[in-house]
Amino acid sequence: MSDTKKVLVAEDSSVIINLTKNVLMFENFQITAVKNGKQVLDKLQKEDFDLILMDINMPVMNGIECTKAIRALKDSEKAKIPIVAITGNYQNFTMDEFKQAGLDDYLQKPLDYDLLLSTVKKHMPQS
């Protein structure tokens, strides 16, 4: 029996969601996609995930606010989930600012899908 890893993709672009799903599902990851940070928090209350890919610029609740909310969760397992930022304007933030918000890494748009896959694998908890 395979231990399928679950990735939550928080991204308001359907194109990026679909491309990311195709890349990660090819590697047997189970993908759930949402469109904003509030939906991330709602999903986390109901399900467990191994990693979150978090767009920084989303409506309702952006990726930085959402990451801070996740890091503050009472459930210590969920509060420690690896979170990788996806951003098109990473120049607006330093890596220190990403780290202070609780992000583990970041990927720049347009996404390099080989880098996406290696970054996901790098942060995926080993079973």
Automatic annotation (TrEMBL):
> For the modification 4-aspartylphosphate, which residues carry it?
55
Q: Which CDD domains match?
A: REC_hyHK_CKI1_RcsC-like
The name of this protein is Response regulator
- Report if keyword Zinc is assigned: no
Q: Name one Pfam family in it.
A: Response_reg
Response regulatory domain: residues covered: 6-124
KW Phosphoprotein (keyword) present: yes
Top-level lineage group: Bacteria
Provide the species name: Echinicola jeungdonensis
Q: Which InterPro entries match?
A: CheY-like_superfamily (IPR011006), Sig_transdc_resp-reg_receiver (IPR001789)
The protein's UniProt keywords, in alphabetical order, are: Phosphoprotein, Two-component regulatory system
